[in-house]
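Quick one:
INPUT:
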């Protein structure tokens, strides 16, 4: 793992999110877990050389941020936002997160195949939240404060973890640094507002959900990416393009590759992004109720 200072570590170069941990005076606090089984097992072993895990905080419900919780069972209290907890490893028509995690094994973690559980075994105890909160939550751990800030947009239960003592924020997928942003079922307007909340923090280091460690200046880049996607799809709608035409013609390959291990998914991500925005921008809204004269 990449060591950011004497107490903070992260991993940015394997498939999945950027799992991280902070060493406090009473033990480590883990922020997100690896999707790949061998990486999750190795991370737990490494983290526990610094003491007993105090908390495991997840920043969102997408499988690459939570699947590794299974391998951290018994290691610290799991903390989830309510919006994350309610969607933890939920199977949707468009995506089965368990199968998505399994799919990565042959190419990205063949040694993890024997470690991968059966579905029933996994869902019996995926190690989800024991502390579940709405809004914001602050944890005092030794001499460290961890401020869990609700930053919805990418997902409804999205949080950023602000650690003032380290002058760092762990944004989860509110920031994709140097790689393609996944809009999925996101609310772009909420996301933009959440970026402003992150921008207001007094930090030197920003650990994104994907891509290399950066700083607050990258918030402007992420904001531009979101506005670029929304503007391009809005222009397509205004031009009378169908959803299929929009998905075929609105492209942002110049924004970088899809993250590690997922480079082959560029077409899928761009199609998903354009289609999701098209649906939102063309959705019929209830007519306003006018006051009676």
């Amino acid at each position: 793992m990449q060591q950011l200072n004497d107490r903070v570590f992260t991993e940015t170069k394997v498939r999945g999110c950027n799992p991280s941990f902070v060493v406090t005076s009473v033990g480590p606090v883990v922020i997100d877990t690896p999707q790949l089984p061998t990486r999750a097992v190795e991370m737990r072993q490494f983290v526990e050389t610094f003491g007993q895990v105090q908390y495991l905080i997840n920043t969102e419900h997408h499988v690459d941020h939570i699947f590794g919780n299974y391998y951290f069972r018994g290691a610290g209290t799991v903390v989830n936002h309510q919006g994350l907890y309610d969607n933890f490893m939920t199977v949707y028509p468009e995506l089965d997160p368990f199968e998505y995690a399994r799919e990565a094994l042959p190419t990205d973690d063949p040694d993890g195949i024997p470690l991968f559980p059966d579905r029933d075994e996994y869902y019996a105890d995926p190690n989800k939240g024991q502390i579940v909160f709405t809004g914001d939550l602050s944890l005092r751990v030794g001499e460290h404060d961890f401020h869990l800030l609700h930053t919805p947009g990418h997902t409804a239960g999205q949080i950023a973890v602000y650690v003032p003592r380290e002058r760092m924020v762990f944004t989860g997928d509110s920031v994709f640094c140097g790689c393609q942003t996944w809009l999925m079922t996101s609310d772009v307007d909420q996301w933009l507002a959440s970026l402003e909340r992150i921008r207001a923090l007094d930090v030197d280091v920003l650990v994104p959900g994907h891509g290399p460690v950066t700083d607050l200046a990258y918030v402007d880049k992420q904001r531009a990416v979101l506005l670029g996607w929304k503007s391009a799809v809005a222009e397509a709608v205004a031009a009378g393009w169908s959803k299929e035409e929009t998905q075929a013609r609105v492209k942002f390959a110049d924004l970088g590759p899809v993250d590690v291990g997922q480079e082959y998914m560029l077409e899928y991500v761009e199609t998903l992004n354009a289609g999701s925005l098209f649906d939102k921008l063309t959705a019929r809204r209830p007519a306003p109720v006018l006051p009676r004269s």
